[in-house]
Design brief:
The protein has 351 residues and is an alpha/beta fold. It has 10 helices and 10 strands. It has helices at 35-46, 91-104, 122-131, 170-174, 190-201, 215-241, 249-260, 267-325, 331-338, 343-350, and strands at 30-33, 56-63, 69-78, 80-82, 87-89, 109-115, 144-148, 158-165, 177-182, 184-186. It has an 8-stranded mixed beta sheet. Strands 4-5 form a two-stranded antiparallel sheet. Helix 8 runs antiparallel to helix 9 and helix 9 (331-338) packs antiparallel against helix 10 (343-350). Mean pLDDT is 77; it is low at 1-27 and 313-351.
């Protein structure tokens, strides 16, 4: 074989725990993304100028003590201009916004930056090195780079990266880096799931709008989903018993554990408790409406008393104006002010 030259690339090491015996670890960084951060990024992308291909911004969140787990909770846009030859980022705006966000949310820290494009180029390396620097960057932790594709008509795809310096000289290493993909996950709780499902249901509507559901409609929809899942499980179990589907020991154990958590209560007792709960809810709703009506009636009565009490004061002011209108030297001006009460006319006749 002929002689060949090789360039060795090392995977970035995750920060180790601070202890008496510090041991480096190569555990990969795992990233968790909250839905509100993604919505902010998509909103920023939808408001970009028509001639701008991508937009960038800063990612905020929390980081575990060893730095191997990062949770992205918030983000904000950073103005920038990008051409074929150069890229310009408003650093002063970035520093000011970072200080304001950290003051409003002291538990959050700078974790990286995002871009609404899957492309990784030299400009991406420059911005990545800026967010990874000491002092105002994420050092000694690696900066997380989140890319979100916002191409119209295609599904939204997200990717997360960390970087390692690369280059034969320190000057060259400052302008370039190696992006290493890291696993990520989008997590949301039950409340956020309901909102996301409501937003997703608007994609099939022509005007892209969806009215909010009432509590009864939400309960009805939840019961229908439970019934549908029970039907699917029942069909699967029947197919396994009839040897029409391949059995799964893990799935069977999961179903057994799930069913064991259900309370052993008769159907009549569940129906009675449900009816009692509905009656309690209706009673609370009736009391709330009664209190609201009483407050509104009290406000109307108080407004009426104040209105009735102001009428004598208005008449007294008019009479005073008419009396002034009867004066000799200022009869013309006083007579005009007194026309509203009638006394001004008498003042003009006497004059």
């Amino acid at each position: 074989m002929g002689s060949s030259s090789y360039l060795h690339l090392a995977r970035p090491l995750a920060p180790a725990q601070i202890s008496s015996s510090t041991i480096s670890t190569t555990a990969p960084v795992s990233v968790t993304i909250q839905p509100q951060a993604l919505f902010s990024i998509l909103d920023h992308a939808s408001r970009r100028p028509a001639d701008q291909e991508r937009v960038i911004g800063t990612l905020l969140g929390v980081r575990s003590e060893d730095g191997t787990e990062v949770e992205i909770r918030n983000c904000y846009a950073v103005p920038h201009t990008e051409t074929q030859e150069q890229v310009e980022v408003d650093m002063d705006y970035q520093k000011s916004m970072l200080q304001l966000h950290l003051r409003a949310s002291p538990k959050e820290v700078l974790v990286g930056w995002y871009a609404t494009s899957d492309e990784l180029n030299t400009f991406s390396a420059l911005i990545q090195n800026f967010y990874s620097q000491q002092g105002e960057g994420t050092w000694p932790h690696p900066a997380v780079h989140l890319t979100v594709s916002t191409v119209a008509g295609k599904d939204v795809e997200a990717h997360t990266y960390i970087s390692a310096p690369i280059g034969v000289t320190p000057e060259r290493a400052a302008d370039s880096c190696l992006f290493v993909p890291v696993p990520h996950e989008i997590k949301y709780n039950d409340a956020e799931k309901s909102g996301l499902e409501l937003i997703a249901s608007a994609k099939d509507v022509e005007n892209r709008s969806q009215p909010l559901l009432t509590d009864i409609e939400v309960l009805e929809k939840a019961v229908e989903q439970v019934l549908d899942m029970l039907e699917r499980v029942s069909v699967y179990v029947s197919n396994v018993l009839d040897e029409e589907a391949e059995p799964s020991a893990a799935l069977g154990q999961f179903l057994m554990n799930t069913l064991s958590l259900a309370p052993k209560v008769e159907a009549e007792d569940i129906e009675r408790d449900f009816n009692n709960h509905v009656q309690d809810v209706l009673l609370v709703s009736y009391l709330a409406n009664t209190i609201r009506t009483q407050i509104d009636l009290s406000n109307r009565l108080a407004t009426g008393v104040l209105t009735m009490g102001d009428k004598p004061a208005v008449d007294g002011e008019g009479g005073k104006g008419g009396h002034e209108g009867g004066g000799g030297g200022r009869g013309g001006r006083g007579g005009y002010r007194g026309d509203r009460s009638g006394a001004g006319q008498r003042g003009q006749r006497e004059q």
